[in-house]
Amino acid sequence: MELEQEFYRAMAYRVRELAGGADPFIRRRLLGLAERYEAKGGKPSPVSRSAEHPLPPLRIVSPATAIPGPGEA
């Protein structure tokens, strides 16, 4: 169990490092992800703005619809 907690703590650290160089929208999402990793790692995290105003879920577009075919624009 300790190995799993250490994994989540390390992931939280890595995600926070990535957030440092990201644009504001991505930064908020990455910091929210880091908080979830910290919670799984057993380290309590304070309530943040992301908990008060949850971010919308990611919109996933299938590859077939993401790239227009010939003659489509």
Q: How many structural domains can be distinguished in the coordinates?
A: 1
Note the total helix count: 4
Mean pLDDT, all residues: 76
N-to-C series of helices and strands: HHHH
- What helical percentage do the residues reach? 55-70%
* Beta-strand fraction estimate: under 5%
- Described by the principal axes of the CA atoms, the overall outline is elongated
Structural class from helices and strands? mainly alpha
Contiguous runs where pLDDT drops below 50 for at least 5 residues: 47-52
Radius of gyration: 17 Å
Profile the largest sheet: none
Termini, distance in Å? 52 Å
Count of DSSP E strands?
A: 0
How would you portray this structure in words?
It is a single chain. With 73 residues, the protein is mainly alpha-helical. The chain has one domain (2-55). The protein is 60% helix and 0% strand. α1 packs antiparallel against α2. The radius of gyration is 17 Å and the shape is elongated.
Please provide a brief summary of the model:
The chain has helices at residues 2-20, 24-40, 49-52, 63-66. It is mainly α.
Give me some keywords for this one.
single chain; 73 residues; mainly alpha; 4 helices; elongated
Helices and strands, with pairings:
Elements: H1 2-20, H2 24-40, H3 49-52, H4 63-66
Helix pairs in contact: 1-2
